[in-house]
Amino acid sequence: MVSAADTDTEGRRGLLHAEGPRLSTTLALISLAVLAASYVVNAMDRQVFSVLLPGIRSEFGFSLGQGGLLSTIFTLGIGLAGVPTGYLLDRMSRKSVIIIGIAIYSIFTILTTLAVGFPDMVAYRALSGVGEAMQNGALFSAVGAYFFANRAMALGTLNFAYGLGGFIGPLLGAHIAAGNGWRTTFWTYGLIGLVFVVIVALTIRKSFTERKETVVKAGPRLRVDHLPTALYNRNVLLLMLTAIVVGVSMYGYIGLYPTFLETKLGFGTGQASLAASMFGLGAVLGIPAGWLGDKLNQRAVMIVAALAGCVVGYLLFNGPTTAGPQYALSFGEGALASGFLFVNIYSAMQRAVRPNLIGRVSGLFVASFYLPAAFAGYLFSALVNSTGWGGAGLWQLTLLPLVGVAALLFVRSGALARTTQLASP
């Protein structure tokens, strides 16, 4: 927080810098790597369910609609916990919230193996999302604050970790399930998560996670004097709308894409798992996507990515039917929806508010992106039943994202925080 005295001295300039002694570059990068590795496990847990869904549906007799809901219901927990997590970050250390979040989703991942039917499995998957939201909000707030001068690229690093987990999760999960059943996969992922609870607790310093911002006289400066003081300002609201439509579109694909490949195109489990994993591989482009968001007009980057995503989304369910092209399209969906749009919408929302509101706006992003996405799989299944797989792809992955493009056209690029380098006066 900026003191009254500091505001009087430098308020007109609106220049902010992270306060306190920084870690060495090596230690900061190691801290980032450890936290990113914990996020890999988060992504593995999220992405694996859709690959295991055909076997789970067969065992429990779930309908396509029930399966679609189970595949994406964890985002309900993420969305519901998003805003409370933002307020929790104002009252607890980010490190503590990260640890609690990892513990919660790991425990409920394990409990999924004990489900006896649809209602309790829905509850376990939704509650795992609560922990994922806590880790996500605290992690992205911590990294965004520490690396404020290159915020989008730093968040892109986390999305690289998400993409790595999204690639590993389905492949490894399907491999484990093939020999030991789907429950063994959830046990494995849950236990790995609990190991990271201990690793983060012992290795991550609060001087990394609790970085604040205050006024100083030299170094990289974050200009915020031109930003609205309110949390719910024009740019935040428009970016929230964009996050909603991107989340619903992306999770419609994530929830039922492997089922589409196996039931409609006749892919084997291995091929479907690899195709789903290519989404995660595409998401690792979050680093260059974030770099472009830092260096270029971020609104333009998001608009181009959204329009390209509309084309890829259409072709996924209305284009090539062979494995190779589907692998490429799934990679493209991951690169555009997760790599470019998730990273840049998230960082743009952080740039749309003053630094003391970063925790809360991170919670808003999580709620906007994930809460509506909870029903994306069910919506997609309903569209499949009424319009077929191709019609569902057209409506949810091509036409719906155009709403986000329209919203982005009204975002004011000049009302986003920007970094500049000034010498000592």
Structural descriptors:
75% helix, disordered N terminus, single chain, 4-stranded antiparallel beta sheet, mainly alpha, 425 residues
Write up what this structure looks like.
It is globular and about 55 Å long. The chain has a single domain (11-422), classed as MFS general substrate transporter like domains (Growth Hormone, Chain: A, Up-down Bundle), CATH 1.20.1250. Mean pLDDT is 84; it is low at 1-19, 214-220 and 419-425. It is mostly helical and 425 residues long. It contains 17 helices and four strands.
* Total number of beta strands: 4
Number of domains: 1
- Main sheet specs: 4 strands, antiparallel
CATH homologous superfamily heading: MFS general substrate transporter like domains
Give unreliable regions as ranges.
Answer: 1-19, 214-220, 419-425
A few lines on this structure:
With 425 residues, the chain is mainly alpha-helical.
Provide the fold topology:
Elements: H1 4-10, E1 15-18, H2 25-60, H3 64-72, H4 74-88, H5 94-111, H6 118-146, H7 151-180, H8 182-203, H9 206-209, E2 213-214, E3 219-223, H10 234-263, H11 269-283, H12 286-295, H13 298-318, H14 323-351, H15 358-370, H16 376-399, H17 401-408, E4 418-422
Antiparallel strand pairs: 1-2, 1-3, 3-4
